Amino acid sequence: MTSSKEIRDRINGIAETKKITTAMYLISSTKMHRVRNELEHTRPYFDALRAEVRRMFRAAGSTESKFFFPDDNAVPENTGAIVITADKGLAGGYNMNVLKAAEKLSEKIPGLKLYVVGEYGRHYYAQHRRETEPDFDFSAEDPTLHLSRDICSRILKDFETGKIDRVYIIYTDMKTGAEVKTTRLIPFHRAAWRPEEDPEAPATEFEYMPSVAAILDNIVLSYITGFIYSALVDSYCAELTARMEAMNAAGNNADEMLAELKLNYQRARQAAITGEITEITAGAKHKRTEAK
Asked: Region 84-96: what's the mean pLDDT?
C-alpha cells in the first residue's frame, strides 16, 4: 500500500504542475487579446486595398500582371506552400492539423516546395527527412507586419526568378472556428477580383499614372503582405487558443487527481492511526494479562 508520505509528495508535485499550466493559460490569454487587437487595427487597410483593386478592374476592364493567371489558363508547374505552424508544442492538435493539410497538398502536387514558418514544423520535417526551403527560418511567435514583409519578399523573390510560379498558404483561420485552410496566394484568378455589375456603382472615370498594371503590381504587393500578416495572426491566435484549452484541460485533470489523492491520503492516515491505536491497545492488553 502506498504510504502517506508518497501520496503527499505526489500531491505537492501535481500542485506545482498545476501552477505552471495556470500560468501558461494566463500568458496565452493575454497574448491572444493583444495580437487580435493589432490585427483589427490593420485589417481595414488591407480590406481597402482589395476594394481598390476591384475598382481598378471596373475602370480598366482588363490588364496584364504577373500576379494573375494568363488568359490561356495555363497551369503553373512549380508550386510552393507557406506552412504556418507554431514554435512550441503543448497546443493540442493545432500543429498536427496544419501538417496533415500540408501532407494532403503534397500528395496532390508532387515536388511541392515547403516554406515552413515555426520551429515545430521545421523540426517535424527534419525528423521525417523531408526537405524544406533553406534559410526560411521565420518564427511564428508574436507576428508583425515587418515579419510579414520579410516573408513576402522571400516568396516573391522565388516567384520572380521562376523557382516557383504558384504559391499556397496553409494556416489556421480563427474566423471559421480554428479551421485549417489551404488557400492559393498567387497567382490570382481574374474572376475573383472583377466586381459584379452594380447598377448603383458610380460612373466616375479614373486615370492611373503611370499605368494600371504598374499601380496594380504595387497594390498587390501590399495586399499579399497583408494576407500573410492576417494568416500569421489568425494562426497565432488559434495556437494560443489551443494552448489555453490544453492547459485548462490539464488543470481540470490535475484537480481530479488532487481530489483522489487527497482522499487516498486521508485513508492512508486513518489506516496508519488505526494501526497505531490497535498496537497500543494490544500492548496495553498484553501488559494487563502479564500483571494478572
From this structure: 86
- Provide, rounded to the nearest whole percent, the portion of the chain with pLDDT above 90: 25
Count of domains in the chain?
2
Q: How far apart are the first and last CA of the chain?
A: 38
Q: How far is CA 53 from CA 58, 136, 141, 188, in A?
A: 9, 30, 31, 12
In the block, residue with C-alpha cell 515555426:
118
H or E segment and range at residue 181:
strand 179-186
Give the pLDDT band of residue 21 (cuts 50, 70, 90).
confident
The most distant pair of C-alpha atoms in the chain lies apart, rounded to whole Å, by 123
- Range from 41-45, 107-111, 114-118 that averages highest in pLDDT: 114-118
Question: Do both 257 and 123 map to the same domain?
Answer: no
Please report, to the nearest 10 degrees, the dihedral formed by the alpha carbons of residues 211, 212, 213, 219 taken in order: 120
* 252 shares a domain with 209: no
Q: Are residues 139 and 231 in the same domain?
A: yes
What is this structure's pTM? 0.74
Distances (CA, A) of 225 to 54, 216, 222: 18, 14, 5
Stated as kind and residue range, the H or E segment containing 22 is: helix 4-60
DSSP 95-158: HHHHHHHHHHHHHHSTTPEEEEESHHHHHHHHHTT----TT-----SS--HHHHHHHHHHHHHH
Q: Which residues, other chains included, contact 211 with Cβ-Cβ below 8 Å and sequence gap of 6+?
A: none
How many Å apart are CA 72 and CA 266, to the nearest integer?
79
Task: Provide the residue type at 286 as one letter.
Answer: H
For residues 168 and 31, the answer to whether their CB atoms sit within 8 Å is no
